[in-house]
Amino acid sequence: MSTEKRNALGRGLSALLNDSENVQSNNNKKTTASESPEVNDLGSVNEIKLAEIEVNPFQPRTEFDQDALKELSESIKLQGLIQPITVRRLNAHSYQLISGERRFRASKLAGLTQIPAYIRTANDQQMLEMALIENIQRENLNAIEVALSFQRMIDECSLKQEELGERVSKNRSTVTNYLRLLKLPPAIQASIRDGQLSMGHAKALITIEDPTKQIYIHQHIIQEGLSVRKTEELVRDMQKPQVKKEGKQPESVSFQLQKIQDDLASKFSSRVKLKLAGQGKGTIEIPFLSEDDLSRILEIMDW
């Protein structure tokens, strides 16, 4: 394979595939007119029947934008498939996708019966690692998808963060920042996934340890459209030490009540506060940021 082709696969992916360059194929088998020619040139581009290719069971990507697929299929109809997919051979006329499922699906929509493909050899762990790396290298991947892929590579491929960084050409601090996103409350992760929060917003929220405070600031960001700079200022203000007022201090919240407070904050996506007045009495405060936010909270309360 030429250097140009190797680079096209991405540094991490091509590094995994190098070991299969020297695999020798058997050229002695014959085919009938009803069969597609048996492909033996591992490492080269070959035309393979779509019907002989099965999807990668280790594919971390589960959703494909249907409009984008249709757009790509129309391009394929006019120009053909420019970038080959990558497969591994299961037997003489059966292959499994390593990377390129989007191109594979779009080619089917375009009505193609054959598709250009690189053929490689890979075991199951290599398949998983290559699929994850190919997934990470997509330009439109959101930060949560990247973080989940990083975590899978660590868990399922037994990699350390330094090794993972080498695989995906990122330094350890970048890898760590992505992985820390997975410690944020689910509501915040969903906002990052849906594009409501940027990586800059997320980095600011990560510096806060209290989930209820994270959710409170998250609501401010969404409701008021805060910039990353404004979010960082709000986080700094919230982290400033509070001056204790003179007089009797409210009773501290027990661990059990703290958990209730955190659960309510997660349920309402707002900073809920329990205040105890003694003898089992107290109040619950749920702040709202606007009339719309109040309506949202009341709807959750089924009011």
For the termini, the CA-CA separation is 66 Å
Number of strands: 7
| Main sheet: strands, sense, barrel | 5 strands, mixed
CATH class category name of the largest domain: Alpha Beta
CATH architecture of the largest domain: Alpha-Beta Complex
Protein structure class = alpha/beta
The dominant shape is elongated
User: Hey, roughly how much beta strand do the residues contain?
Assistant: 5-15%
Q: What's the SSE pattern?
A: HHEEHEEHEHHHHHHHHHEEH
The helix fraction, in percent, is 40-55%
User: Mean pLDDT, nearest integer?
Assistant: 75
How many domains?
2
Strand order of the largest sheet: 1-5-3-4-2
Radius of gyration: 26 Å
How many DSSP helices?
14
Low-confidence stretches: 1-38, 248-253
Biased composition (Polar residues): 17-37
GO biological process, one term: positive regulation of sporulation resulting in formation of a cellular spore
Keywords: Chromosome partition, DNA-binding
Region (Disordered): 1-40
Describe the structure.
There is one protein chain. The protein has 14 helices and 7 strands. It is α/β, with parallel strands linked by helices and 303 residues long. Residues 1-40 are annotated as: Disordered. Residues 17-37 have a biased composition (Polar residues). This is ParB family chromosome partitioning protein.
Name some characteristics of this structure.
five-stranded mixed β-sheet; 48% helix; 7 strands; elongated; 2 domains; Conserved hypothetical protein from pyrococcus furiosus pfu- 392566-001, ParB domain; alpha/beta; 14 helices
